[in-house]
Design goal:
Elements: H1 3-16, H2 18-54, E1 60-63, H3 74-77, H4 102-110, E2 115-130, E3 133-142, H5 144-151, E4 157-160, H6 164-167, E5 171-175, H7 176-182, E6 189-193, E7 199-208, H8 213-216, E8 219-223, H9 224-230, E9 240-245, H10 251-262, E10 265-268, H11 269-272, H12 274-312, H13 314-322, H14 327-362, H15 382-408, H16 412-417
Parallel strand pairs: 3-8, 5-7
Antiparallel strand pairs: 1-9, 1-10, 2-3, 2-6, 2-9, 4-7, 5-8, 6-7
Length: 419
Amino acid sequence: MNIKLIIKIAKSLLLARFKQTLVAAVGVTFSISMFIALLSFMAGLNDLLDGLLLNRTPHVRLYNEIQPNSNQPIYSQFDTNNTHNFIHSIKSTVSRQEIYNSEAIMRTLKKDQRIMGIAPKIITPVFFNDGAIDITGVVNGIEIQSEGKLFHFNEYVTAGEPADIERLSNSIILGKGLADQLLANLGDVVQVATINGERFPLRVVGFFQSGMQELDKTQSYASIATVQKLKEKPNNYITDIQIKLKDLAKAPQIAKDYARLFEIDAVDIQTANASFETGSFVRTLISYAVGVVLLIVAGFGIYNILNMMIYEKMNTIAILKATGFAGKDVQKIFLVIAMSIGFFGGLAGLILGFGLSAIIDQIPFETPSLPSVNTYPVSYNPTYYVIGAVFSLITTFLAGWFPSRKASKVDPVVIIRGK
């Protein structure tokens, strides 16, 4: 049968039931637009939260963990096959957090093609003196250039110049929460005490705000040279080597390789932040589930409307079949109706979904923990629009398939006789 004729008949039936057709199309439009807006917002939120973690966390961290030796002397003195030894108050054999031969390790890492970059670091606990009170904190000794390039450090400095910690001797960047506790302003001098009781005056040259309030109450940053001076260590003293990889998925295996090669402790980002990744996955899964449910509900609406149309157009269907239309032709007519509703409703839904996403993207979002974020986060990933368009067509096709099969099996003789 001529496809143009089939389309013309489908158009006539659509216009004859214009209100019902409009309701079905609006249902698809609403479902697609909500699917796009919801998924875009949740993806933007996930990107924001992931960025807070991924921007500040190395893919692989090399360090020395202070822990007791599992091979105690008693095991070499007695036959342990038939005895049990109970040892209490075991002292750690590793008393130094320093990474031995750190320069050679970093030279080796720089030759690895899997690595994007490395950043040495020193982590040391300190006390910030506030009158008669000592506030517990941590000073991170960093290389500002590599830290800014690999971990976006400069983006989280809300006041002052990050490079000042290397240009100015004995300077420090305080976490915003810690600065508030100390009532410290730019240019002020804070007293820092090491665990050995030594006190050092450090000038505040900036404030740091990561978006994690508890972290900002304890963390501070200085140059590696300044922290080495605080700890009275030589200029090759390093406690951590942070590694950024070209492929994040390879982090677990690379961590194992380096732990074995350098005989050092290594942890990958997936292991260190397993609960965070699980939360991100669950949020995305919920977003997709809600969007799919909305599309399925719209599909049922189209199914019901087509069913009603078939019952009301039984005489028309009978006449079509009596004048030479085959059952497959009748089925095609109703499938064209369903797909037309899905196509035009879906197209309008994509446009409306983009509009809603743009509106959400402009809504002010102010929080003290995230000063760099001014509006609600939204992701404009084209994948979501492709998924929405494809799913709307599939849903409407299935919604029209079953009623169209029923229409194709109508016996025109029975209908015309009125039985």
